Amino acid sequence: MARQDIHGLVTLLRANWTVDQITALLSCDHEDARKAAALALSLVGKRCCVTKLSEQLKARDPLANQMAEHALWSVWFRCGTEEANECLCRGSQALDQREFDSAMEHFGRAIEMDPTFAEAYNQRAIVHYLNEEYAQAIEDSRKAIALMPCHFGAWAGMGHCHMHLGRIQEALRCYREALRINPHLERIAEAVMELQKQVPPEATIDGETEAREQGPGQGQAIPET
Question: Superfamily assignment of 80-140 in CATH?
Answer without folding.
Answer: Tetratricopeptide repeat domain (1.25.40.10)
